[in-house]
Amino acid sequence: MSLSNLVTLTGAPASNRHRFSRLLPAFIVLAGAASIACGQARFEEDFDDADKSWQEVALQLPPAPLPENLLPVYISATATQSFAIDARSLTVGADGVIRFTLVATSPAGAKNVSYEGIRCASFEKKLYAVGHSEGRWSRSRRDQWEPIVRNAANRQHATLAQDYFCESKSVAGNAETMLARIREDRPINSRTDGGR
What we know:
By secondary structure, the chain is of the alpha+beta class. Helix content is 31%, strand content 23%. The protein has 2 domains: 3-51; 67-183, Lipocalin, CATH 2.40.128.
């Protein structure tokens, strides 16, 4: 069916049919352009990760740390405690969070065990659980992300993030790479406190 037959079938007066037949191609072009623009917007939306909200993966607590799996981590010359990571607990999640068991030991020998996470993208830390001497965990009541403090005496989170886990707000390798850095005392960046 031709355009003129379509216009004739509409039953419109001849003057309106003539106007309609001239405007019809313009409407078709506009409708096509709108469809393309809408499709492009959806395409860009699908690939715009900055607008998508981040989602944390479900958490499973690790077994209690064993002394033979603890790797000492040098924090700073001014640290008031010594720190170690349980090598078997260190993971890098699909959500970009590095999770690990941290053991802090006071000069008197008292130990604090915690299961924590560091998120490189936002330079934040989270306390998931606190360990007890009999090997069980208690979920933290402060189950929220907090900024990492860089200039505290016990700056264990900042040291772990900057020296072993993160580089330019990105996860710096897999768990084995991070563990190798800790074992070999080979930080990503030079230490600012002069090292040991």
